[in-house]
Amino acid sequence: MADRYLTVAQVAELLGTTERFPRRLIAERRIVFVKVGRHVRIPESALNAFIDANTVQAIGHRRSSLGRAA
Predict the structure, then answer these.
(1) Full DSSP string of the chain
(2) Model-level pTM?
(3) Distance separating alpha carbons of residues 58 and 64, to the nearest angstrom
(4) pLDDT (tens digit per residue) in 49-59
(5) CA distances from 41 to 16, 20, 26, 34, 70 (A)
(6) Residue 69 has pLDDT above 70, yes or no
(7) Residues 6 or more apart from 31 whose CB is under 8 A from it?
């Protein structure tokens, strides 16, 4: 299956950020990208991998060991 290549603006929209954030990820080499001439594209699979790698799972509900006051 062919991968979609997203522009910086599309990535920013999907992440709900400004374009500055994906550009910083590119500059810091924290996300895979492709240069097409002077244009930069981010494979959709790379964006999904970035999101998966930075997803923090919730901690299950823990009961307090102190109990309730009377």
Answers:
(1) -PPPEE-HHHHHHHHTS-THHHHHHHHTT-S--EEETTEEEEEHHHHHHHHHHTPPPPPPP---SS----
(2) 0.78
(3) 17
(4) 999 999 999 98
(5) 18, 14, 10, 5, 61
(6) no
(7) 22, 25, 42, 46, 47, 50
